[in-house]
Design a protein that fits this description.
With 146 residues, the chain is of the alpha+beta class. It has 7 helices and 5 strands; from the N terminus they run ααααββββααβα. Strand 3 and strand 4 form a beta hairpin.
């Protein structure tokens, strides 16, 4: 199952790169693969530490710029900011997040009722809504035991 998800994601990667005139380099592939293998919504620095093991001359700035490019072309999304460095999410399907305000963990969850939330008319008049995501803030079980 994980391999099929990776294969589908890589197909999307190649398609989006082609559509946007972006060269497919080994470094970009490595960054994207590590991102889609993570369920933790990593930061650029977290990905840098992993990718640097294979490409020792890659810089944090390159990772940062690559992730911003990936977000611009619709390969990833930037997760809601919580005062820490930007975090990235490869999961482009409709889902929501729960965020631990103590340890910073962000977990995905699905909820059809949240998916169906109606956007107030006042907002619809001011914005073209591209997607909806509910974010719940709380304290995870690990931190509660703490």
């Amino acid at each position: 199952m994980q391999q099929k998800k990776t294969d589908n994601s890589l197909e999307l990667f190649y398609t989006r790169c082609r559509e946007n005139g972006l060269k497919v380099t080994p470094q970009r592939i490595a960054i994207y693969k590590k991102l889609i293998q993570s369920e933790k919504h990593p930061t650029a620095e977290q990905l840098y530490k992993i990718v640097k093991k294979r490409f020792n001359n890659i810089s944090l700035d390159t990772i940062n710029r690559t992730l911003i490019t990936f977000a611009r072309i619709g390969l990833v999304s930037v997760v809601e900011g919580f005062g820490s460095p930007r975090r990235y999410d490869h999961n482009l399907s409709s889902h929501h997040h729960v965020h631990c305000v103590k340890c910073g963990a962000i977990l995905d969850f699905h909820n059809r009722e949240y998916d169906a939330l109606d956007v107030p008319g006042e907002i619809k008049r001011k914005f073209e809504i591209l997607n909806k995501r509910v974010v719940l803030n709380g304290i995870c079980a690990k931190c509660k035991r703490g």
